[in-house]
Design a protein that fits this description.
Elements (H helix, E strand, L loop, with lengths): L5 E4 L15 H10 L4 H10 L7 E7 L9 E9 L7 E4 L3 E10 L4 E3 L13 H8 L30 H24 L4 E5 L2 E6 L3 E7 L5 H23 L2 E8 L10 H8 L3 E6 L3
Parallel strand pairs: 9-10, 10-11
Antiparallel strand pairs: 1-5, 2-3, 3-5, 3-6, 4-5, 7-8, 8-9
Helix pairs in contact: 1-2
């Protein structure tokens, strides 16, 4: 699916169902009943064929429980492509496919939820937030009223949803929440947003604290992607000012700080002060 840039499902495997894209649930189910397809196909295909451009998709690896504990393991996030309708194609290898733009892949993101069927339409805000995090439009937090910081816009109208757009929007949400928190801690005069390409910079009397924001669900990936950037910015600042520099990578997920973790390895390897910070609404 990743190579083809699609999500896919089986059921009624050999029929091209292009003509049923966007049709009512009743029409799709009636057709499947006439073909004596399984009941599970009714639920799966009525939702799959009604995906819309811009819909956010969490691609699960599996949902097998761990003992008595429900478990959902997500492997990727994607956004449905298309204009008025999704781009559907029937594929001999995968069955029914819809084109998507993958936002993040290679995950092993586990949540204590039970979603055993092939497809689920998630509408409960209490579930949307932990499953989709900052990628979701529904969990946007209003910007602080009266803030004098120049915060990033997260309320623009989307014309054509893309993975890049969703990632950028998630990044801006995290950055804005972080900036507000730092202003409360250090005061407005010490906090700068987007200063010389630095996401958030805190200047104190004796040191700089550089915050580099990434929106990936994988904290290891946040660290990996941010480290080169933030070290370069710190090198320039230190050369100009002589002040000490501390480095903070910011992401939406908790970090594994166990003895053998990637984060611990990086922290122990760097001579400079380096930490990871989770920012989640």
């Amino acid at each position: 699916m990743l190579k083809k840039g699609v999500i896919a499902t089986g059921f009624n495997w050999y029929e091209d169902m292009q003509d049923f894209v966007g049709k009512t649930h009743e029409v799709i189910i009636t057709h499947l009943k006439e073909k004596a397809e399984s009941k599970e196909s009714y639920y799966t295909l009525k939702h799959f064929l009604n995906l819309k451009p811009g819909d956010l998709v969490a691609v699960k690896i599996h949902s097998a429980p761990s003992g008595k504990q429900a478990r959902l393991v997500i492997g990727a996030y994607a956004i449905v492509k298309g204009v008025d309708f999704p781009v559907y194609k029937h594929c001999d290898e995968l069955g029914h496919t819809i084109e998507v733009d993958f936002i993040e892949t290679g995950l092993d993101y586990e949540l204590p939820f039970g979603y055993g069927q092939t497809i689920h339409k998630v509408e409960d805000l209490e579930r949307i937030k932990p499953i989709f995090g900052y990628y979701s439009y529904e969990v946007a937090k209003p910007e602080s009223e009266g803030s004098q910081l120049h915060l990033k816009n997260t309320d623009d109208v989307i014309v054509e949803a893309t993975a890049g757009y969703v990632s950028s929007r998630a990044h801006n949400k995290i950055q804005n929440l972080l900036a507000d928190e730092l202003v409360e801690t250090h005061g407005l005069e010490c906090v700068k947003v987007e200063k010389n390409f630095i996401d958030v910079l805190v200047e104190l009397e004796d040191k700089f604290i550089l915050y580099e924001v990434k929106s990936y669900l994988s904290s290891d990936r946040c660290i990996r992607e941010a480290l080169g950037q933030v070290l370069q910015y710190g090198h320039i600042l230190k050369a100009r000012s002589g002040k000490a520099v501390e480095y903070v990578v910011v992401g939406p997920s908790a970090v594994d700080d166990s003895e053998d973790s990637y984060y611990t390895y990086i922290s122990n390897t760097l001579k400079e002060t380096f930490t990871y910070k989770r920012v989640f609404a």
